[in-house]
Structure formats: structure tokens, C-alpha cells
Amino acid sequence: MENKDLSEEVLVSLRQIVRAMSIHSKSLVKHYGLTSPQLLILQELYHTNQISIGEIARRISLSHATVTDILDRLETKNLILRVRSNLDRRQVFIKITPKAKDIISKNPSLLQEEFLTEFNKLQKWEQYLILSSVKRIASMMNTKKYLKIK
Question: In this structure, what DSSP letter does residue 81 have?
């Protein structure tokens, strides 16, 4: 198989993954009223008392601006609270509300259950091989040369 054929097959597989994630995201909205990024943030908040916006962004690998936009929507839904620091009034911390804790306690998944079931059936070395490959693809796609518009 030629390199072009291989790269096209990778691209087709990536599109299939993106499509599956999009369908799952729509299911999250239908069942929980949350998008995948909103759920990701709430899951992060669920395990902490309060956290800064910058720390959330760092932990989930999204930009500060993107996280701020998502938090605005979560605040509108009464799922998070913004709380000013007592020590430095310029600093704002994010806290999860009981309403959001109730949603998270229902254990919504960011990944499709079918994927998780099949992935968990794999041997550990196979899971690590997949993780390594996905991380490599992500790093290849996140380089600045790929993000430039030609």
C-alpha cells in the first residue's frame, strides 16, 4: 500500500471517530442537557472543592477563553458558581453546584459505552498501544505547522 493510501485510510478512520464522538455528544445533550466539554469540566469540578479557571483549562487542555465561554453556559444553567477569593479579590474560583453533582452522580460518560466495553476487553498492552497511537496522532495534529491556514 502506498503512503497516500495509508494517509487516506487514517483520515477516513479519524472522520469515523469524529462522527461517533459527535453522535455521542448529541446523546449527552439529549439525556443530560450537557455538551461533552461541559461534562468534562463538571467532572473535573466534581473532584475538587473549588478551582481557578486557569487550572481547569490546564487540566483539560482547553484554552482559558474556551473554558470561560463554557463556564458562562454552565453558570446560566445553575451548574457552577463563581466565587471571588477572600485573599485576592481579583482571583475567581469555580465551584460545582448540588444540581451539577446530581447529574455527575448519574455517571454520564464522555465515551460511548460500546467503546468502553470493547476497550476494557483488550489486554493492557493493547490498551497502551492504542493510547500511544492516539497521543501520537494528537501531537502530530497539534503542531503549529498543521494549524496554519494555507
Answer: E
